[in-house]
Input
Amino acid sequence: MPFFEQLIGSQAGLLLAFVLAAGVVVLTGMRLSIYGDALGDRTGLGSGLVGLIFLAAVTSLPELVVSLSSVIQRTTIAQGADLAIGNMLGSNIFNLLILAIVALLFPRTFDPTKLKNPHTDSTLYGLVLLAIFAGAFLLAQNSTAWVPGLHCNALVLLIPVAYGLILRREHQQQKKKTDEEEYLPAEQALARLPAARFYGVLGGLCLLIIGGGIALSILGSRMALPPEQGGFGLEASLIGTLFLAISTSLPELAISIASVRMGFLEMAVGNVLGSNLFNLLIVFVGDVAMRGHSLLHHASSKHWSSVGLIVLLTLLAGILLRTRSRKSTVVTAGIMVACYSAAALFLM
Output
């Protein structure tokens, strides 16, 4: 398309296209969250389990598609690896920041004392999967060996295995719960729609958010081009960690804000922590997709700073979800924002 090529050929046009693509992802993600919660009503699984598996997965589709597209459509092997890993780690960082953002925006409704549980298990699960990733990253930087057939790092293979065990444990715990589920009128109406119409719209929304993710990947890659070629001359690791990560995490932000405003704090927290678990699966998918090369071997060592920041923000998020006064909630959230801001300035 000559017009589109001409539009993204300039910095202003590239930025405009990026904003429009991000807007599509946000609006689609918001609508998709409502359908996802209604799915819990239709299937009888409950919003907790459906939120952990389906809602977290669909809001993480942009991260998955962007990282996968970055690997497949890479300009160079190193650039593809940096965009993919940077997007995944950056999204997890920003997702944790979302908890601080909603805590500061809605100090009255963001009340951790009303949580049925402080989500300690989900927080620990995130650290366990991150530890596996860190081990795989360290191994890959010193070796290019991979699992025959899959062409992935041996430790990376443990990520989907651990994720599956986590889902199984959560499913077993969910079956033991007898708490009543609450659904909004709009979700109850969706649950009564004919199956063909409901699942047709649900599938269409998934395809739309995938298309938006692919567009963000292409535009993000062009941002790494020199200024004379219409790009911004930024490093691929920076683009992945900041620009792509924030834009693909916008569905989680929109959903969390809407959930907290409506008083569904459990849904907001569960979506953020569940998305972070799902995002780590991107490493396995990307490593397998990069046939003949090791994804983590070609990724920049600069990503270690992101790993450290995730650990710090995860620990602070665990503290945030256990605060018992509005003042301590605001202070903890403020510390999280300060840490993120300092890290962003460091990366710039």
The first helix runs from residue 2 to 7.
